[in-house]
Design a protein that fits this description.
Blueprint lengths: L4 H7 L7 H14 L5 H31 L1
Helix pairs in contact: 1-2
């Protein structure tokens, strides 16, 4: 994401593992590829995606710890 920006990420054949999620995220990425967006929009999107990934990771870790007790 940070290397290629929103435009490159929107062109990925499968930006997420599940097709349904990939279709939705691709729409979000394309929406962010506006002429006025530029590098600032790319950085904001990358920061947001990193935050989402962190939340998902924490959720998975919490579930895994719950199963191991």
């Amino acid at each position: 994401m940070r290397a290629g920006g929103l435009a490159r990420a929107a062109e990925l054949p499968e930006p997420l593992p599940r097709r349904e999620a990939a279709v939705l995220v691709r729409e979000w990425l394309r929406a962010g590829v506006e002429p006025a967006g530029g590098i600032g929009a790319d950085d904001t999107a990358a920061t947001w995606l990193r935050a989402v990934a962190t939340i998902i990771e924490l959720k998975q870790l919490t579930r895994a710890r719950g199963r191991s007790t």
